[in-house]
Amino acid sequence: MSQRAEKPLGWRRWLLAETPWSRLQAELGQAYLAALSFARNRLAIVGLSLVLLLLLIALFAPLLATHAPDAQNLTMRLHPPGAAAWFGTDELGRDIYSRIIYGSRITLGIVSLVIILVGPLGLVIGCAAGYLGGWLDTVMMRLTDVFLAFPRLILALAFVAAIGPGIENAVIAIALTAWPPYARVARAETIALRHSDFVSAARLQGAGALRIIRRQIVPLCVSSVIVRLTLDMSGIILTAAGLGFLGLGAQPPSPEWGAMISSGRRFILDQWWVAFFPGLAICLAGLGFNLLGDGLRDVLDPKQR
Amino acid sequence: MARVAVGARAASAFRGVAAGTGRTLLVLALTFFGLLLVTFLIGRVVPIDPVLAAVGDRASAETYARARAELGLDLPLYQQFAIYVGKVLQGDFGRSVLTSNPVLTDIGRFFPATLELATLATILGVGIGVPLGVIAAARQGRWQDQVIRVVGLLGYSIPVFWLGLVGLLVFYARLGWVAGPGRVDVGFNDIVEPMTGLILLDSLMEGEGEVFANALSHLVLPAAILGYFSLAYVSRMTRSFMIDQLRQEYIVTARVKGIAERRVVWRHAFGNVMLPLVTVVALSYANLLEGSVLTETVFAWPGIGAYITNSLLNADMNAVLGGTIVVGAVFIGLNMASDLLYRLLDPRAR
Amino acid sequence: MRHREWVFGGLMTALLVSPAFAATPKDTVVMAKQIDDIISLDPGEVFEFSGAEAVSNIYDKLIDFNIKKVSELHGRLVESWGVADDGVTYTFKMKKGLKFASGNPITAADAAWSLQRAVILNKTPGFILTQFGFTKDNVKDRIKASDPETLVIVTAKQVAPSFLYYCLTANVSSVVDSKLAEQHAKGDDFANEWLKSHSAGSNAFTLRDWRANEDYTLEANPNYWGKKPAVKRVVVRHVAEPSTQRLLLEKGDIDYARNLTRDDLNAIKSNPQIATQESPKGNIVYVGLNQKNPNLAKPEVREALKYLVDYDAIQRNILSGTYIVHESFLPDGFLGAIDDKPYKLDVAKAKALLAKAGLSGGFTMTMDAPGSSPYTDIAQAIQAGFAQGGVKLELIPGDQKQVITKYRARNHDSVLLYWGPDYQDPHTNAQTFASNPDNSDSSPSKTLAWRNSWNIPEMTKTTLDAVGERDAEKRAAIYESLQREHQKISPFIIMFEQIEVAAHRKNVDGFIMGPSVDTNFYEEIRKN
Q1: What is the pTM of this model?
Q2: Is residue C402 located within the same domain as residue C457?
């Protein structure tokens, strides 16, 4: 987007042509307009920068960290922030700054895993239920009712307690509790699309249900699911951190931010930095995703703000 | 995360109403049955031996076997479930191993604490969130809107347990403005006879001013922190409802007529937003019941969230099942109530 | 009724004034403690740390030991006692004129009823008595009051008399007010249901109220035969977080904080309002190495791992003031306890031993540990130590009950846990650390040796025979050599012994802390 100004005027005119000559041109034009409107939203840019920063930090963690994340130094326990340790050290003398840097990998890992699990699952269930209707729809929606009737964190807690603590299990538990809303969204969109002309046209051409769902319905539901996923990311981060805080998520010595807050909780009165910085990291990461999602929604989904 | 779920919940509630009460009840019953089944199954696969919770680690083999039989754990799974459902239908949730009380008694004791917390939080969240949302909508795109947007989004980004810890550090430990964890100071324990279980109400009814003051001072911080999360949700929803209204033709007409902008916003537009807001408030209330799990842990608040968590970690499955069912019921109940209110207040709603 | 301050006044007080003048009432002592482990306050059933402390302040026993010198016994409710020449018949003479809190007289019949009750109910601590051969069928003949002042106990076989005596100092042997209790009995439950949350004892306090996970309240017993407590009421409130306990103490909201960590204790050192007191507790922190793991079954590996723990550094940096280094299975103060510390961090030696075992390239193992402080810190420090020897330790923290469940199923590689003695005789720890009568998976006896699949027929025999040795000196010698052998070959890395520290406001003192959880007494606490 920063290259906007450098683009030759001809390109712009081509992109914004009122009567595009090709489908590609029309789509590119749409995307360009969306990007323009996104770029005008300063908060969204801040969000994007935060998310990019998070990605870069995770990518270059070994270069950015000053210490190994697990390196203990019991004689340097609970040192306040300073030149030796920028964010101070924790109860085992580990460098908190380096741990937070490495922790970004875990956070991003959790978020991406949950998304990979939840997005497709919710999409498929929702589209199938919405398109096919009948008893399948009823069963699926009752199932989501049951899941939605649970307070989400309690359900995740219960799942993790059942399958044992740990980062993989936390991901599974979060995914298990997160899919119903996506199924609902996809289903609602599908029902709206079901009787539209192009779907009817496809049906008349003899396309089977599976093919219609795959080729016509799913692609159209993707954008709203993506917007929701972006907005949901901070929720996933928070749930994962909450599980870590309760001792059911990532396990020591893993530098997961929620678990770091949990262990720093004991020292909050005197060594505030142990719990403070990981919390700040969670806030910034969450805020980044939220601002980005908010901006994306304004662009992609102007119906709702 | 709350928004998506809430939106879907609202949608489900709408459909329920449209389909009529009979079907709604059936759905409700099915949902409850599913709730029971899921919690029950989870309870049985928890990698903690429930007999351990009852007799501890040192009991002799004989004592252990007897306790296992007493808990009904030697029966096949489906029988255990059938027995459990049968009892629940008679209003018997069994006995908690940890507290050795009937689970219903425990819930009766812990639930009001959560209710008190969530209620005050909602009052704070709505009281501040709604005006903020209206201002943001009226000043859409300007700095007020941006500030309120960031404040709201921060509410979706901050871990509640962390905010609680920082709040305790600053307002209790350093500044001494509020009282610490727990519901009242130890010295004020047992002065008030629990009638409603809500200390604020009980102490007022019994004229115990000091207890009231102390309880309020304990409640303010956790309620404010939970209230912030409610504020985030309420203010954003208010803003978007208001923007919808402000685009309507009657607003344009009113403005053209020269009615003061303040009046246009607060009287005309806001008047029409109040209805959908009722739904939002009810949903936010339901979400706070959930959000209280972590808050209660941080503030040592003896509420239902802490009760369920603690029971879960100790494989006290009767307590977990009972607690979850009650929270689930309140959850569903609030959804339906908000819906009903909406229908009652607004004849246009189907 | 307190003065009426209505809403506005209340609000103002709440927001502006209240935290400033927090103080506990004069006649009430308030403690903050982790008491969520309590599931019953019936002395025949109680076995949790917090419950044991409460019960020992409510109920009295026939005899007790001197908390300063555990080897000395004295009568509580009896004036004299002894064993006949047959070695199995014990006679106890009750003191005269003593009363329960209810006003009922304390008789030998109450004592007999209480012990019979504990055996017949056979709740968790029941084994402490049933190990002398009492069963629900024979106990009424073996334990009985021959007259209102004389209690006779007949054991199944000869044991060291001190073994029985120390078991009678355990909470399960408390004397219960049988008249009062029987009024509340339901069916054949010996009032178990009622006694879970009510009291029928004769010690310095009575139970006013217990609310699980919240608090328990004791009130001075007006009929107590000893010196009456100086305070009317003791409230023990559950506060899970040590840092919160400390805050409450610093603010004066409580008089005692019972679970402060090393760091909290350091932080309050400079506070002129606060003092601390401490007492060693018999709780021992150890790592158990499951012999089902082929690597850990090698003696060289077990020894090598013992050399890979930096006992001193962990104690100094993580545990100082709350634990001391202790490497043998009997806690200080027990008959036969030794102070040998053969192991310290020695990476070179450990590497040599591992090489000898054919594992010079190191190996990977897991360790289950409770996910709470200080265990997570200790576990991570052990992990760092093992890594120096090339042993990759993967931690599996979990809730304590979860760890124990897995431990009892013998599904662990290694486990970090603690063990507290059940009564004040060395047999309690020797039996669990050094005996394993049946190593099969279905064994009814799940001793710690069994849990780590450590099959030791010879050592088991030595251990079980030791309780029959009636000469105290010879018995002590057996335990000493047993522990030295144990240190060399056992799959237990015994590391630390707990010191219990209580921090209190300077204006309150007199809390008695003994060597075990059931010897912490409130009766002499005073407020100035």
Answers
A1: 0.79
A2: yes
